[in-house]
């Protein structure tokens, strides 16, 4: 297993405090990994304003996004970091994904404004689309939070996606001298508790998955704790991350094929809406070198 080091980091900017905070965290990450930063600001579609002689309106629409890029450029310059600035117009998620693909990015960073839970669910659909279509991992940074890999939480359910996320979490802990808390949530409806063997089988699979992660962490000399929880997975995971003071929560994604599931209210989307710490969503590819092997005999 190797340490996953982002080479090019694409950051979405819109001039909001949340996106400025995300850019600050992206700069710190780029500096520590010697990565390359690309700031992308996406203005609303201009609707042909330049073609109908409404230049003033067009400039007014673009100004906040130009100012966001200018501020990012000044911050990067002070930090001694090279920065490529990109101004686009159109659908934000499409332009961000296009930029990630064009720049061959290995990480997309987005800010997340503090809102009520339902607002974050409804307004976060663009974020869900970026995650769904992104060719690389996506880091969501809630407003006024700081990324910290010294205490990382990851959640596993035995799927290839979650085991890849766990492997990424181990690599980050190894690189930043951090500790890992691996969580599995037993989500069994009350009526199914009565069916012989259902609960025990789910618990066994959870122990296999968490045991495999603990074994892989030990091989990398990463301190690791295993926590088995019961209840609603999204709330249990988010609450546990807050309880232990996690500086980053690492989750797996089902990729483009799982976009419909993500948009219809998946566990990952609800965790994103509930989390009080930065969330790294890992886009696992077949044969991902970071993935923790799942040994049924563990």
Automatic annotation (TrEMBL):
Q: What is this protein called?
A: UspA domain protein
InterPro entries according to UniProt? Rossmann-like_a/b/a_fold, Universal_stress_UspA, UspA
Q: Which organism is it from?
A: Solidesulfovibrio fructosivorans JJ]
UniProt domain UspA: residue ranges: 7-142, 149-283
| Alphabetized CDD domains for the sequence | USP-like
Xref: Pfam families: Usp
Identify its protein family: Belongs to the universal stress protein A family.
């Amino acid at each position: 297993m190797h340490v996953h080091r982002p080479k090019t980091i694409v950051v979405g900017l819109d001039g909001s405090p949340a996106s400025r905070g995300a850019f600050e965290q992206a700069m710190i990450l780029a500096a520590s990994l010697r990565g390359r930063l690309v700031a992308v600001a996406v203005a609303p579609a201009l609707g042909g304003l330049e073609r109908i002689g409404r230049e003033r309106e067009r400039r007014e629409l673009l100004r906040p996004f130009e100012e966001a890029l200018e501020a990012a450029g000044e911050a990067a310059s002070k930090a001694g970091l090279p920065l490529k600035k990109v101004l686009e117009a159109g659908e934000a998620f499409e332009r961000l994904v296009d930029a990630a693909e064009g720049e061959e990015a290995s990480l997309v960073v987005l800010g997340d404004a503090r809102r009520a839970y339902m607002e974050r669910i409804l307004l976060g659909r663009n974020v869900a689309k970026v995650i769904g279509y992104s060719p690389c991992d996506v880091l969501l940074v809630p407003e006024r939070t700081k990324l910290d890999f010294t205490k990382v939480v990851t959640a596993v359910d035995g799927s290839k996606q979650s085991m890849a996320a766990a492997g990424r979490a181990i690599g980050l802990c190894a690189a930043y001298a951090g500790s890992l808390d691996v969580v599995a949530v037993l989500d069994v409806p009350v009526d199914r508790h009565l069916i012989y063997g259902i609960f025990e089988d789910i618990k066994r699979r959870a122990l296999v998955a968490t045991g495999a992660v603990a074994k892989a962490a030990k091989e990398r000399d990463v301190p690791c704790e295993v926590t088995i929880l019961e209840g609603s997975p999204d709330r249990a995971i988010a609450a546990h991350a807050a309880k232990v003071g996690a500086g980053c929560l690492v989750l797996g994604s089902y990729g483009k094929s799982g976009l419909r599931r993500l948009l219809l209210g998946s566990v990952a989307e609800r965790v994103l809406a509930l989390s009080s710490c930065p969330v790294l969503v890992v886009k696992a590819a077949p044969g991902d070198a970071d993935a923790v092997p799942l040994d049924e005999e563990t």
